[in-house]
Queue: 4 jobs
Job 1
Amino acid sequence: MCGIIGYTGQREASEVILEALRRLEYRGYDSAGIVIMNPELTLHKRKGELAEMQRTLPQINGHVGIGHTRWATCGKPSNENAHPFLDCHGRIALVHNGIIENYMALKEKLQNEGHVFTSQTDTEVIVHLIEKHDKGDLHQAVRAAVAEIKGTYAIACIEKGSGQIIAARKENPLVLGLGIDENFVASDVTAILSYTNRVKYVMDGETVVITPEKVTIYGPDGEMVERSSQTVTWSAEDAQKGGFPHFMLKEIFEEPQAIHNSLLGALDVIENGEILPNVQFGSIKIIACGTSYHAAMVGKYALEELAKIPVTVELASEYRYSPGAKEFPLVVLISQSGETADTLAAAREAKRRGCKTLGITNVIGSTITREVDEVFYTRAGPEIGVAATKTYLTQLIALYIIAIRIGYARRNLSHDAMWNELSKLRAMPGAVQSVLDKAFDVEAAVDMLVPARDVFYIGRNINYPTMLEGALKLKEISYIHAEGFAAGELKHGPLALLDSTTPVVAVALTKDHTYDKMMANISEVAARDSPVLAIGCEDDKELPQVADLVLRVPCVDPLYSPVVVTVVLQLIAYYVALKRGCSIDKPKNLAKSVTVE
Ligand code: AGP
């Protein structure tokens, strides 16, 4: 959740760290801090957004330092609880992502030994543990300290008078950036892309010694680990707003390209079995959280239709604690970040239960890629806005490709039928572009939602989860209470809540076999005086007769319609949030990657 950066080299460390923190701010933003070695450790940290820390930052010169943006998990946002933390004598400074589960017991012990604490955080115990174990070799002290910790961490620490950074990781992402006479450590590659695209990923249980000349990785056993570097193809520019007012809007407008990129190589996946060469499983379980869970629900419809295979969908946070039946489905885990704690735990649980696992993620080298048997990468590029948009659409594309792959391999789809489905998928970038070309219509239409306290989203069949996703997007960034419903469920309870103050967003597509039922449901809500904003096909003449406003999408095959309908829903959420003056890219209480349970 939080962002970590460490620098050692020839540049002014504070400049590098501030630049990196600006790029990391989307990961956590309730406080920020920095320590520069010069040769004392000079610390500055502040509650609030990074700008506040930067505004009050004095000039600190030095070539080694660490920085942090925080998303509070233990101890409320405050100056005291902001990272970095110093040991009792101001000799060691540390930043941390993750959660230390046994910190209370460790803190009590350390306090009894004379260590003085200044915060309510779990993190502070780590720096005191390192201090306790420090006999003149910081790397060894860090190794001894993390051996006592229960929980998860990515840490970076520096010490007075030394040019080295020591880092360690367990179940939290950490990447090393390699430069010439300078090196970096960060929680996310976007932090360091302005300086280098040569990286090495740190694995669980490893510790690293970073100097300007080299990075040395040590395995859990203390042995040196050889690892070749990788080149990241994202540019620093890719992670910028590119002229759009918000990352979210930029990322929505990147969707045609993201879908196109994710379709590259689809034929190899489908025809040559590049993914799932062996389809010897009788059922599929898809597991995910949040938006990725909604993609999983759409995937169930696609897989059951194209592959005629039974599919169940489960929330990762529920699956990991479920009793587990005697079954061996293919378990598909979806996580755009590849770092969601619940999804990673579910992946481990699925393996423990003896299931084959397939991960769908957008981040190369992310933790999930090491937890699953096979990986399908979406190619959405970096997504900075907290609200998932283009990564969601590429997750849908991945699931359609996998459904066609399994349908073809199980001979439910003939070669011609497989090509037919693939060509429908290949039409998606164009269809999405035509929705984006009419974004102004959406901007004008949302006025009926802006003042609302509650909004209902209704759909049927494969667009039922689409509407759940639409509702999630609205509540996430506009703070309006929004609920998605299967339209057939309205009369079983939710209808009681409808009146003229509760607008309803509904989807009814002429080609869909549930069209008539949706028209009836829309009439039902209109009869309760609820204003209706409908999403319908370009050729639909009946929908305007029951809805107050209609937003049009291209008449694609209903199976693939979630792709185009979702774009309208994302734009609705964006423009409502914009008109309500909300912080769109950094909604309150949320973080981009949820690395805690
Ligand atoms: C999406 O807009 C949300 N920010 C959130 O629901 C997210 O989808 C969820 O936390 C799962 O993230 P993941 O795909 O990175 O695992």
Job 2
Amino acid sequence: MIKKKELEIFLSTLKDFESPKENLEQWSTPPDIAAEILFIAYSAGDINDRIIADLGAGTGILGIGAAILGAKKVFCVEIDPNAYCIALENLEKAKRIFDNIDIVFLNMDVRNFSKRVDVVIMNPPFGLEKSTRHADVIFLRKAFEIADKIYSLHHFSSKSRRYLINLARNNGFKGSILRTFHIPLKARKEKHRKERLIIPVDLYVFEKEY
Ligand code: SAH
């Protein structure tokens, strides 16, 4: 069994977005945080032998990490062809090092993905840009539709906490916050460059209530 630090080190060798697109809110989960999230899910029995979807997979860091930790199969869904190509390169790299990596990368809009899975693990767009307004809600609704257990990262605010927990309840899910991370964004906008933007991000778990 791979150790958390070893997973983090491998994930840090994966290729990142080449020129991240702001209109898709492309920023990748830092390797240490990705490894942390994946081990939290693994410890809860939500990775080993599970069918997993990584929605808005970007360059594949979460999906590939889940496959390394023993997922039965991972579907990585990403709309951007450039990110998709990088993800395929990253997949090849993982396959050279680890056995039993079973990942399908799908270059498509998450709204058109309809496969039923056991668990969703995702870092979706936060819906902060004009072009991505409510993207987080679109991703969550899709996740509620296809899985009974969801791990998802969302931008922190007390308003968004109330909103997302309510949204979950209205969809038959119980939501709670497992951790709050502080993630340094590689700032691209001039106004952010001076501020060294660090954003608070909540890791939620959502579980279907019966
Ligand atoms: N999950 C990755 C990337 C996070 S950035 C990681 O943790 O590193 C969010 C990703 O969602 C971007 O790659 C963006 O291109 C993708 N995305 C945005 N809208 C999408 C949509 N409608 N369907 C599928 N992917 C989308």
Job 3
Amino acid sequence: MKDKLVIAMVGLPARGKSTMACKIARTLEFDEVKVRIFNNGVLRRELSKGNTSAPEFFSPENKDGVASREEFARINLENARKYLENEGEVAIIDAGNVTRERRKRIEKTFQAIPIFYIECVNVDEEANEAYLERKALLKEFKHLSPSEAFDSFFKRISYYESIYEPLHDERNHILVDSFEGCILQVNILDRVPYYDRIRDIITTRIVKNLYLVRHGETYYNQEDRIGGDSDLTEKGLAQARALAEYFSNVRIPIIFTSNHKRTLQTAAPIAEKQEDCSIIALTEFNEIHAGICEGMTYQEIREQMPEVAGARNRNKYGYVYPQGEGYVSMEKRIHRGLQKVFYLNNYSENIMVVGHRAVNRMILSDFVFRQKQEVPYIYMPQNRYYHLQIDPHKKHFELKPY
Ligand code: F6P
């Protein structure tokens, strides 16, 4: 008989628990482990009659709310118990599990099966805020304005904070920084089946499908001008429509863009063709800032600032535009943008990034090793996109027409 395991997620709302649960489940499935996620929130939305998204529902003072949530937790555990009793090998209890009481309930339900707690934290305030903004876009908050939804979710978190009891008596637990994708603490007293595998999954980047698209043609592109915040041309708009059509049968829940008009204008028709798709603009994905050369053509730079053109030619990766950026100085922000993407996007979902020439080169090189001096020359056309897939068994990337 194969080993059985209960993984219980622990953490405040919006700390990346579900994303982590999904990443673990999806990857264990590759190894043909029978794994299933049991999510309290999903069950609550399925079984509740009215809308239970209001913060008061989560108040520890609200007796009815507490009773309903306890009942959902009980049903969820019962479902997980049945699953493990039958074909299941790993059950992931995806819920806050923030009180000792709740965790004792898990321990009582699974007396003969090891329980492994994964506590998720994220100390990056900006990422937390982005996550809340993302949550505010969810269906259950559709009746509220984005800022009301944000406040409502914030209030919900504070209720959970007020009853949070840190892990202490639990025999097997780890503390994970879900934004950084690293393990901060390990407390393991028993043999935890699949532990080595789970540890690798937590710290490795896994990508189901990443569609890396460059924005459509702009007026600046037509004139060979760099930087700026130009609009798409007719041809660029047609490219965006073609992309929308091409991806209309592929589910894309979020499109990540920069803050520049050209990426937003490219993403808009794609999002429109999807059933429920949000656009999230990240400044981390703004195009390389060319400093004093912003708005110039390459020809003008060669003629008016030959020292800039020459120095960049000699070391394109390491060259930083005066008062601007270089590939080398974009490294950190691009990496951070990608961390946000993975924090905000569920692992079972496809990801689309609509970026820029230099940005997309950097994104690609963050996944696929390239000699640094080659990165600024990676082919990044406007009529094709890169398709990336990374799992523990393969790393695949391909340039495809649309
Ligand atoms: O020309 C479009 C553009 O995105 C510019 O805004 C940017 O400066 C440039 O491409 C980056 O490409 P390269 O590093 O090859 O100049």
Job 4
Amino acid sequence: MEYKKLISFPKDFLWGASTSAFQCEGAYDEDGKSKCERELRPVPDNIADFSTTSDHYHRYKEDIALMKEMGFKAYRFSIAWTRIIPNGDGVVNALGVQHYNDVIDECLKNGITPIVTLHHFDIPNCLEERYGGWRSREVIDDFAEYCTVCFKEFGDRVKHWTVNNEYNSFFFDMLNSSFGDKTAGIDDQNALKAGINIAHIKLVAESKVIGICQEMWSDAWIGPTVHYEPGYAFSSRPEDQLAVDNNDAFRVYLYLDVACKGKYHPLVWRFLEDRDALPDIQPGDMEIIAAHNANWLTLNYYMSATVGYSSLADESVSMAISQDGGADDMTSYNIQGVVKGYANPHLKRSEFGWEIDAVGLRNALRRLAYRYDLPIIITENGLGAYDQLEEDGSIHDPYRIEYLKNHIAQCRLAINDGVNLIGFCPWSAIDLISTHQGMAKRYGFIYVNRDEHDLKDLGRYRKDSFYWYQKVIESNGEIL
Ligand code: BGP
């Protein structure tokens, strides 16, 4: 669709950026905090660990001041469960509560709306050891208790919540390497069943938490954060279009249908039934799911997924990484009889091998908006790249500006398409530690002066993209 005259971004559009606690706070054992599973997972020698990260815990005031200078209207960050209830046993850590009160107040003082993620890959390790974390139903009540503390302590000032960042890593679960879960030890045959059980536990927990929040704060926005790689057919073969539907259903509708419509997607359900892998549903689960629905969607978008038909008859691969190489490890898969990932010859890749597809963001927004009819905010989008701090303190990152410019342009087109897009918070506000590639893979508008192992002065420097984004926000997206 092309328009003769474009409408603008809404006046109160939430321009900002995102971070997550375990990737930027550091201070991982200070003020009563326990460690999360990710902070204890061994990292390769040449990669930074999560002990200090960007030291945002101590420098949040300086960072929020820089966000204000950029003109941020919103800041999306996560609360570390490990600071609020360190032992997972219900005892609340007053220092943890105090810290987030301070961060929230600092945002509000600077005219920045806090958007809070309750869980971003950082389950307390003690719960992993106690009962296997998200693999056990025991986590549902513990998570609900932690979230209730957050709603009680912060809900008077925080009106924008997201529950569980990117919990829709179903393919990962099937492939035995889900984020934040120690699923090692589950063999291939049981991986599918284990994966859907983890997904089901996360979904029941999410619905329960949505219900608690809505009960306590009727004016709150609360919903899921998904990463979504909208499918493109590898060819015009009709079967490849079926694979697109399969991709979208398995990757994201499975989760969003539960969160927003209160029920499981029929295609995924039928697949699970056929593979003898329906989740272990307990009495009351479906009632919880049906009763509590999200009232907004928060979307992480990095890439699309080019997919084709996968036949059960093809025995060369089964639930394994596809040899044809999709956009990255998230799309290079072959779920036999469902969908197979391919590289997209029309797209360039980042230095870290992720396909770059700005139009894919418009596709993702349109599909989600038309399917769920809810307000949407982008909580992640961005380019991981090697940045160079020059001697004069400048950082020239035209590649990041180009990337964001193209994606924001697609946001505006999506708004013209009728998508109720209410904000754009790319990844990331400041440089932080990547999930797998350390400090070298930088995303921020604000450079953090440290290497993998040399913490230097952890000083903050404005990148060229900082000044560029400042103008974007000032012009409410008119000047890109
Ligand atoms: C998302 C995560 C973020 C962030 C981002 C970039 O999936 O929610 O936590 O890390 O991806 O990924 P990476 O750090 O692997 O480059």
